[in-house]
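Async update (no meeting this week)

Hi team, since we skipped the sync, here's where things stand on the single-chain job. The sequence we agreed to prioritize is pasted below, unchanged from the tracker. I ran it this morning and attached the output directly underneath so nobody has to dig for it. Comments welcome in thread, and please keep replies under the output.
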Amino acid sequence: MITSQTLTWHAAAPVASFPADGGACVKIGHRQIAVFNFAATGAWYACQNQCPHRMQMILSRGLTGDHKGEPKVACPYHKKTFSLCTGENLNGDDYQIEVYPVKIENGMVYIGLC
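Output:
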C-alpha cells in the first residue's frame, strides 16, 4: 500500500505544458510517465508511458475517457484500455500499468513516486 509517507513528490512541468483533456509525457529519472489533464472534471492522472501489450512508449498519446465513470486511457495503437485509478486492464488481459498520484501546487504538476 502506498502512503503519503513513502512518496517523494517530483516536479513534472507547469500546468500549462499539458493539453486540456489530453496527455503528455514527462521523464523523471529513468521513468517515462504519461500525465493526463481531465480539464472537463479538473482531475489529473499519471501512469507509466509504456503500453505493456507491445512495450511501446505511447500511452501519453492515448485516447482518454471513462469506463462506468472511472477514468481510462486506451493505447492509440492497440486500443487496450487501462484504468487511470488502479492500472487495471479493462479488456480482461492479465497485464496492467503502474499509476501514480498527482498533485497541483502553484501552477506546477507534481508526481508522487516511491
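Quick observations from my side:
DSSP finds no helices and twelve strands in the chain.
The chain has a mean pLDDT of 94.
Reply here if anything looks off.
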